[in-house]
Specification:
Blueprint (H helix, E strand, L loop, with lengths): L2 H9 L8 H12 L7 H15 L6 H8 L3
Length: about 70
């Protein structure tokens, strides 16, 4: 195992006897969402991607201005 990876895993321990396997399992658990996206969500994503392809976007600055955020 690469020393940098080992050092990072060591730093992530929640208790001194936690194994690397337990750390990796914990990381996978929090980073993986096994819930499928609904048909409505998939449709919304597809529409958003199409809007992006058509150049129908605004900058963060413009959005902040529209929402009155500084």
């Amino acid at each position: 195992m690469d020393k940098k990876v080992k050092d990072k895993l060591e730093a992530m321990k929640v208790h001194p006897k936690e194994s690397y396997n337990e750390i990796i399992d914990r990381l996978i658990s929090v980073s993986y969402d096994d819930e499928e996206l609904s048909d409505e969500t998939m449709k919304d994503i597809e529409e958003s991607l199409e809007q992006m392809r058509q150049g129908r976007t605004i900058s963060n600055e413009e959005l902040k201005e529209r929402l009155g955020i500084k």
